[in-house]
């Protein structure tokens, strides 16, 4: 913090921080100086001239938003002359402004309207000619519209788009009275690179930029505003939902939201339509003779309890398996794994984290002792060097990508991107390494080889904080840049440059996601990133660390709370007798000490007939899992399948019993975001009549099966979690407030942990692992000559259960496609949009070709969200031997024009 | 000249934007800025396309549409206005048989209007590409145009 100085405003002495913004200081001290262009989240503009003040011994009228506080400033904020000038400015603005307030969705929250009222400016008492020639509105974007006739050209949107979102899609065009904003080179909004995040709408002080889906839904004063957490990805953005009559009208980012700081992406702001879908499940369903019929809760629960009990009695608890959900709350995940372990009597519980970050949890636990992001999201903005690999952050974690862009654009950080595809972040990168799919250990070892050779490693850190360095060094020495170039296809000069950038940065952060984890060598890849951080001492301090970005809103929490076959909540091993005893005493039942089945293993065992029944809560393996044809056979082979969800998903359609659940807009409870932050949900809407909360369904099932379970609400469950889970020891609902708490949070007085491993690793010493490069399980050959990888896109989420029921998201991206390089397209004589059949050893799909240089010449990329051309019909279910994660990022395929 | 050759003359700093745009426009047949070139400029300077567009749209010297080989800019600021600039504009229009912001069919001339060219003592004034012509009257305009048609810029 800077030193404090004294300034005077209208005779009142004020203590303020030197260098602070004068307008902000004045407002904070009760001086209501008007202003339209000032927006505290971006650099000051000084354009609207409303915040003019007089400063003693300085000439003229000075816009206070551009003045930095210094000792002795003597400011006049209000006198007759200043107020006259301000009134004139408001009059000029009103003379140009289309006064469509009667139909404006911003009315009553419009800054210009407030000023017109304050200065008593009406259109009939203006001393200026009134603009009556109107320009057309650009409403070509699916989500937002721009009315130049209401625009006051303050520039807040322009700066929000560039300085906050790092996109710079819009800027001013024209001059004088004709000035307005326009995207890109002046195209229609629809044809611009705008991705619909709506940051500009949130920045607009008037109604010039507005949400198309909200038009006409409610006047501002009719809505109730409730804050909760976004239901989509793992960033955990805090949102403010405006609702009227149990319908969502609009969603804004909460300005002091700890992870998002007011930012949102297109899904967070506009992806809520599914919530009001008439396809929501409203009653339990029982399948009879291949058809669903509606059933009462009692009948469905009794049937399920009877079936589970019979199968347990006849074949043992381990013949039943459960999939918990990364989209349910922490409390529900805890109850689900408790149900599987204590009531069914098996450790066969897992969830789709197996398919995304199992290798992260395994790898980072081995290297550091804790398998989560070491740092907090907002630290990324202040890193000097960021290495992003295997994460198309812009699309998968859009708000995190904004902080990476801020680091580059606003603070001059160096960004290294290592990705086989030319993803959006490449545009911002100092260096792009285009490695061949599945060669990550090799290029990471190559970088470390150079760091060692050039003596850029942190000897002090290695000596004091780590173990295993010598064995590690021996392996890395074999990875010369020349050899690495041969394996990875990355020119050796780039390996050397990357090593120098990362190795000399004051603080460096590694960001990775499924491009690193979804390999048969996933754990090795993760260990290599950890090695790199250990080698340079870039872990255990602010802004520096190893940061796996978790995919779904509560995938971190689902892992934390023990929805995994090998650990109870808080990563306490099921094989540890003391831990087992602790849980046996708490749960008053004997527990199994054998590690249970993971997702893919469950499917294999079901296929073989060893798993007889499955209980699936809020997951959709029929789209999300690798080798879908196999999964379908496995699920159909079960004696009994129970699914609980908010929609009749592809998986639910195969079930014998379906339970209707609450969505996250309808319940309380907590989510843990990717930065380990436990945040409280608030029920915003009333759930459909007939549905129940997931934890309630599990509890009623437990009771029917004769196990005593009596929680009144999710808070009760969290009390038990805190009691048995050391890293959640200090988590109680009443402590969470608006900012939540970041684990580890050991007790009531623990403020939580911003970044991990400060001074000491969770496991004691950081562990170097010698890791050799192993090629992917399946490589291209004559029959299947191309590399297939799968992944996510901005406009859809996971298996599309939610996002594909949102019409504006479908407008952006209506259906399946495959990214195909111009080179491959030429070879196949293929035009953009034509149909192709893509075949692997496991299946085939037909989809549309999207010809783009984003993919490497011999590669194909398919988003996995679309059930009708499910990428996972093709993917390989070969597993990483340690983490049991399948190799979703590399498979061999062939491509034929239809 | 190729766009890459032009760009390579300048350091990739955003303050060079206007110079680069002039250079490209002067070397583009049709006296204008092509979309694909503007995209290259944005990439080269690592600034958003919208910012490049904002500059192009702000300055009337830049055009995103093809123009004549000779761009005639008639000043319409007050001194020229008083000295009959609008009569001169009518003269130009009738001689070239086009309206303001249009180009003659032979691709030679485009008429534009401009703010002050800084030689008010010569009013009314127009510029053709980078050359200034003052103290205009109907006869003088006719002669200038004729000369340009013959490929001469002298009167």
From TrEMBL, chain B:
Cofactor mode of binding and number, as noted:
Binds 1 [2Fe-2S] cluster.
Cross-referenced InterPro entries: NADP_DH_HndA-like, NuoE-like, NuoE_dom, NuoE_N, Thioredoxin-like_sf
Going by the record, the broad EC class of this enzyme is: oxidoreductase
Q: Tell me the cofactors it needs.
A: [2Fe-2S] cluster
Q: What is its EC number?
A: 1.6.5.11
UniProt keyword annotations, A-Z: 2Fe-2S, Iron, Iron-sulfur, Metal-binding, Oxidoreductase
**Which GO MF terms are attached to this record?**
2 iron, 2 sulfur cluster binding; metal ion binding; oxidoreductase activity
Q: Where along the chain is [2Fe-2S] cluster bound? A: 75, 80, 116, 120
Q: Which Pfam families match?
A: 2Fe-2S_thioredx
Question: Which family does the record claim for this protein?
Answer: Belongs to the complex I 24 kDa subunit family.
Q: What is this protein called?
A: NADH-quinone oxidoreductase subunit NuoE
Q: Can you name the source organism? A: candidate division TA06 bacterium
From the broadest rank down, the organism's phylogenetic lineage runs: Bacteria, Bacteria division TA06
């Amino acid at each position: 913090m800077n030193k404090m100085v004294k300034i005077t405003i209208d005779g009142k002495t004020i203590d303020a921080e030197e260098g602070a913004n004068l307008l902000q200081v004045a407002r904070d001290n009760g001086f209501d100086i008007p202003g339209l262009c000032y927006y505290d989240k971006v650099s000051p503009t000084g354009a609207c001239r409303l915040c003019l003040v007089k400063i003693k011994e300085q000439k003229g009228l000075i816009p206070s938003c551009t003045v930095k506080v210094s000792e002795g400033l003597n400011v006049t904020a209000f006198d007759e002359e200043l107020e006259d000038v301000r009134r004139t400015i408001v009059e000029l603005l009103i003379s140009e402004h289309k006064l469509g307030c009667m139909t404006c969705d911003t009315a009553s929250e419009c800054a210009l309207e407030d000023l017109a009222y304050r200065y008593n400016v009406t259109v009939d008492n203006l001393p200026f000619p009134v603009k009556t020639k109107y320009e057309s509105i650009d409403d070509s974007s699916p989500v937002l519209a721009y009315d130049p006739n209401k625009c006051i050209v303050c520039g807040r949107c322009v700066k929000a788009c560039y300085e906050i979102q790092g996109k710079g899609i819009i800027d001013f065009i024209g001059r004088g009275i004709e000035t307005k904003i326009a995207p890109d080179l002046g195209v229609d909004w629809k044809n611009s690179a705008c991705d619909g995040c709506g940051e500009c709408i949130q920045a607009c002080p008037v109604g010039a930029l507005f949400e198309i889906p909200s038009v006409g839904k409610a006047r501002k004063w009719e809505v109730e505003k409730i804050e909760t957490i976004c239901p989509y990805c793992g960033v955990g953005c805090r949102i403010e939902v405006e609702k009227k009559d149990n319908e969502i009208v609009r969603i804004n980012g909460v300005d002091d939201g700890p992870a998002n700081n007011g930012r949102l992406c297109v899904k967070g702001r506009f992806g809520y339509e599914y919530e009001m879908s008439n396809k929501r499940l409203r009653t339990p369903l029982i399948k009879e003779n291949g058809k669903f019929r509606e059933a009462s809760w009692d009948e469905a629960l009794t049937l399920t309890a009877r079936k589970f009990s019979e199968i347990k009695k006849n074949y043992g608890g381990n013949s039943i398996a459960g999939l918990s959900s990364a989209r349910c709350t922490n409390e529900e995940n805890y109850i689900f794994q408790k149900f599987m372990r204590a009531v069914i009597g098996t450790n066969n519980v897992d969830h789709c984290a197996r398919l995304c970050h199992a290798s992260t949890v395994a790898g980072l636990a081995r290297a550091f002792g804790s398998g989560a992001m070491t740092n907090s999201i907002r630290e990324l903005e202040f890193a000097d060097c960021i290495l992003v690999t295997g994460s198309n952050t812009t699309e998968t974690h859009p708000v995190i990508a904004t902080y990476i862009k801020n680091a580059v654009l606003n603070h001059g950080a160096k960004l290294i991107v290592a990705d086989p595809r030319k993803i959006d972040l490449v545009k911002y990168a100092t260096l792009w390494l285009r490695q061949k799919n599945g060669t990550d250990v090799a290029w990471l070892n190559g970088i470390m080889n150079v760091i060692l050779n050039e003596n850029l490693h942190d000897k002090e850190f290695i000596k004091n904080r780590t173990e295993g360095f010598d064995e590690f060094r021996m392996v890395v020495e074999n990875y010369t840049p020349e050899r690495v170039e041969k394996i990875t296809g990355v020119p050796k000069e780039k390996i050397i440059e990357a090593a120098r950038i990362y190795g000399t940065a004051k603080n460096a952060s590694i960001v990775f996601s499924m491009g690193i984890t979804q390999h048969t060598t996933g754990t090795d890849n993760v260990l290599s990133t950890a090695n790199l951080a250990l080698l340079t001492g870039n872990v255990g301090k602010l802004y520096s660390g190893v940061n796996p970005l978790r995919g779904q809103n509560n995938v971190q929490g689902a892992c934390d709370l023990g929805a995994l076959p090998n650990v109870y909540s808080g990563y306490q091993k099921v094989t540890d007798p003391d831990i087992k005893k602790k849980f046996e005493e708490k749960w008053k039942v004997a527990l199994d000490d054998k590690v249970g089945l993971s997702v893919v293993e469950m499917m294999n065992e079901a296929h073989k007939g060893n798993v007889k029944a499955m209980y699936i809560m809020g997951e959709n393996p029929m789209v999300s899992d690798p080798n879908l044809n196999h999964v379908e056979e496995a699920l159909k082979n079960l004696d009994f399948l129970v699914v609980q969800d908010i929609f009749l998903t592809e998986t639910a359609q195969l079930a014998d019993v379906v339970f209707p659940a609450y969505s996250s807009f309808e319940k309380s409870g907590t989510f843990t975001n990717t930065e380990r932050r436990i945040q409280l949900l608030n029920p915003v809407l009333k759930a459909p009549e007939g549905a129940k909360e997931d934890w309630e369904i599990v509890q009623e099932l437990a009771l029917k099966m004769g196990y005593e379970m009596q929680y009144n609400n999710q808070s009760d469950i969290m009390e038990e979690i805190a009691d048995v889970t050391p890293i959640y020891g200090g988590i109680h609902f009443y402590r969470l407030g608006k900012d939540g708490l970041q684990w580890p949070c050991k007790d009531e007085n623990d403020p939580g942990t911003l970044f991990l491993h400060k001074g000491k690793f969770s496991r004691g010493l950081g562990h170097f692992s010698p890791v050799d490069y192993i090629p992917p399980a399946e490589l291209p050959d004559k029959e299947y000559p191309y590399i297939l990888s799968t992944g996510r896109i901005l406009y859809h989420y996971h298996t599309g259960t939610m996002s594909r029921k949102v019409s504006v998201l479908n407008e952006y991206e209506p259906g399946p496609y495959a990214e195909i390089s111009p080179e491959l397209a030429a070879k196949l004589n293929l035009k953009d949009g034509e149909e192709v059949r893509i075949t692997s050893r496991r299946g085939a799909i037909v989809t549309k070709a999207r010809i783009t240089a984003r993919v490497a010449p011999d590669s194909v990329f398919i988003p996995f969200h679309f059930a009708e051309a499910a990428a996972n019909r093709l993917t390989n279910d070969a597993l990483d031997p340690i983490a049991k994660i399948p190799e979703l990022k590399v498979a061999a395929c062939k491509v034929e024009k239809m | 000249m190729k766009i890459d050759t032009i760009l390579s003359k300048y350091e990739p700093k955003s303050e060079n934007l206007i110079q680069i745009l002039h250079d490209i426009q002067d070397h583009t047949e049709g006296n204008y800025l092509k979309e694909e070139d503007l995209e290259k400029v944005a990439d080269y300077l690592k600034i958003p396309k919208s910012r490049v567009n904002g500059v192009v749209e702000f300055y009337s010297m830049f055009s995103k549409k093809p123009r004549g080989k000779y761009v005639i800019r008639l000043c319409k600021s007050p001194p020229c206005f008083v000295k009959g600039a609008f009569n001169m504009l009518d003269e130009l229009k009738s001689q070239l048989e086009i309206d303001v912001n249009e180009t003659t069919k032979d691709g030679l001339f485009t008429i534009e209007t401009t703010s002050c060219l800084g030689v008010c003592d010569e009013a009314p004034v127009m510029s053709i590409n980078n050359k200034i012509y003052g103290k205009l009257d109907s006869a003088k305009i006719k002669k200038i145009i004729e000369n340009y048609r013959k490929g001469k810029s002298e009167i």
